[in-house]
């Protein structure tokens, strides 16, 4: 059996790695268009700094990535993040995220009453959700995140809490992003209990009665509701989201937002040498029946007589089985006359940039609160979030330095695509100085621009992707589609897709 994998990001590499071990008699070829493997995962060393230009971590609760790290012999290099209070910056003021909340949904009375972020009018409006009936979903059982939570919690809660948390994860317009494709558990909770506040309170109480401790509550099923997206916070905010992967997805502030306050142990994982050490280990340990090729442009894919034909840098290649682990844009060049692929190739994608800046601690004149902050979309700035890396991941930074990881890019704002790196550096520095109230200048700034790299799971996404896969199953035997356009944008999501595909092919 001759197998071809197109796409050398983490997902494609994971397929090659496990399939090569499972099927040692198969001939497996992986092609990557870029000059390096790893996709959005990119780690650099700058003097004594470990700098992640893409996702910086993954959610440990989703064990697929940790299992891969263990299989590669890197488990001893895993580290957890340091925790801290999360903040939201809203039009000139910094506020702690209310305690006792799950992705902004209040589940405890007093922390929410004392919260400075939401006005009394906004709090009363959110409380009225206790008497709300379920939202009327569309014919596919779907609704946008924005419309769903505005209906339940009101406009102010949407603007100041829900949108910074959830829109940042997926890097898009919260009034377009599908709740069914991103946080389906919220729909289930609402349908079971009638509304969100009542549902989250009851679900929380049921877990407490079941003996789930307060510290472990996030690992319970209800905790899974917000955490379904939190591993993509880094990915989503950088992308990506990221990551978002980091993938993924975004700041320590977003990371803590599920509960509103710091927890005793970090729920994200990183490696001492950075996430790219996983990519390097996969490449180095790839089975001998797998061939890896970079700078390989794949085009003109066709299927006839049970064989796939395509060109690699202009040379025709054939294969028995084809695995595509590529962004939606690639499908615009492939299967051009087949409308059955419209659901993936017409997906919107968002852009963002990351500005990473290092300061000398002795000359830094600002106050570093917690581990990071989110910025409301109505604040007049292209920035969406900031992580204080030396407090979130101290092993990446010398003791006498401060490192800020600033995320740039909002829906409808084209500065990421229009500005030069120097202009983005200037904007990021000036804006974060204003927001965090300091004047110190950095020793260095690194910019990573991620253009059209975050697939948007808009309303109808699940139905559209199901239609694409049904079409492929009927008309394209031995063609498999995986990656961020399909079943999750987080790092563990990609690994999970890869391992599930290998299991199917190994039966």
TrEMBL record:
Pathway as given in its UniProt record: Porphyrin-containing compound metabolism; protoheme biosynthesis
Classification of source organism: Bacteria, Bacillati, Bacillota, Negativicutes, Veillonellales
Signal peptide residues on this chain, from the entry's feature table: none
Family to which the UniProt record says this protein belongs: Belongs to the protoporphyrinogen/coproporphyrinogen oxidase family. Coproporphyrinogen III oxidase subfamily.
Enzyme's top EC category: oxidoreductase
Pfam families given in the database record: Amino_oxidase (PF01593)
Gene source species: Veillonella tobetsuensis
GO function term, MF aspect, one: oxygen-dependent protoporphyrinogen oxidase activity
Domain of life from the UniProt record: Bacteria
Domain Amine oxidase, chain residue ranges per copy: 10-502
Protein name: Coproporphyrinogen III oxidase
Key words, A-Z: Cytoplasm, FAD, Flavoprotein, Heme biosynthesis, Oxidoreductase
GO biological process, one term: heme biosynthetic process
Listed EC numbers: 1.3.3.15
GO cellular component: cytoplasm
Main location (coarse class): cytoplasm
